[in-house]
Amino acid sequence: MRKYIVIIILLINAVKVSHAQVQVTAQVDPTDILIGGRAHFSIVVNVPKGETVSFPMYKNNEEMIPGLEVLSVKRDTMINGNRMKVREIYTLTGWDEKKYLIPVQKVLVGGNIHYTHRFVLNVRAIPIDVKRNVAKAPDDIFQLPFAWGEWTPILFLSLLAFSFLGISLYLYNQLRNKNKIWSSVHFKKPLTPYEKVLHDIGSIRANIDSYRDQKVYYSELTDILKKYISWRFGVNGLEMTSTEIIGILKSRCEEDSLGDLIDLLYTIDLVKFAKFSTGENDKLLFLDSITHFVHKTQITEPNVDKKQEHTKIDSPRSLVKLSIAVLISISIALLIYVVAESYILLNL
Asked: Which positions, given as ranges, span the membrane (predicted)?
C-alpha cells in the first residue's frame, strides 16, 4: 500500500514541476479604444527550449466574438539559454460602442492545455462637440481676379493657329496661280584632287605678280605639290622633307614626267632656308614644271555621265496640297482647344 502512495505523490510532484516550467500569460493593450481603433491582445508562453506550442487560430478579419474583429496575427520567438518565450499578438478592433469580454483562450503546450484569463476591451464612440459643430450659412460666391498668366497660352495658341491659316492661304494662292513655290536649288559638282591642284596652280599663275616675297611664293607651291603627291601616291607628303619626296618620285615616276621638278625642289629649299633668290622667269618655269608633272601623273578616271552643275527642283503640287491640309487641320484643332479653354476660364 505504501508503494502506491509513494507513486501517487511522485506523479503529483512531477505534474507540479512540469506546470512550473510552463508559464502562460496574456494582456490587452490598450484596454480602452475608439470605434475602429486598434488594441493588441498578446498571449506569452514561457517554456523549455524545443517545446511545441499551439495558439488559438484566427484568420485575418475573422471575428473572435460578435462585433470584435481580428485584423491581423503576428508571432515572435525569443530564446534565452534553455528557455524559450513565444508571443502571439492579435490586433483587434470593434465597430460598436460597448464593452467586449475577450473569452478564455486555450493554449496547447506539449500535449497539455493551458488557459488564459478573461479580459474586457472597452470600445467608445468618437466624441462629437455638438455645441461647436453648428451648421453655418453658406459663403458668398468668390469672384476670381483676372490673371494674364491664365490667358497667355491661349493668346499664343490663337496667334499660332492664325499663322498656320495664313501660310495655308499663301500656298493655296501659289497653287491657283501656278507659281513656283521654291526657287531653284543649285548643286555644284565637287572638284577631284586632280582638278583641285590645277585650280590652285591657276590661282597662283593669275596672281603671280602679287608675290613680292619669293619665300611665300615657293612655300605655297610646295604645299600644293605635297598635297597632290599625298593623294596621288598615298603618302604623307606634308610631313616629308624634299629629299624624301625626291626619293619617292624617282622610285614611282618615269623620268620624263619629272622634268625639272627635282631641280625645283632643291631650289625651293635654297630659297626657304639659305636665302637664295631666283629670277621672275624661274618662277614661271617652276610653275610650268609642277603643271607638267601633274598632267603626266594623272590617273585616268572612268567615264561617268556628268550631271549638270545647276539643277532646278520645283516643289511637287501634291506635297504642297498635303502641307495645306496638315496646316489647316492643326489650325482647326488649336482653335477648338482655344475656344474650350476660354469658355472654362470665363465660367470659373
From this structure: 151-172, 319-340
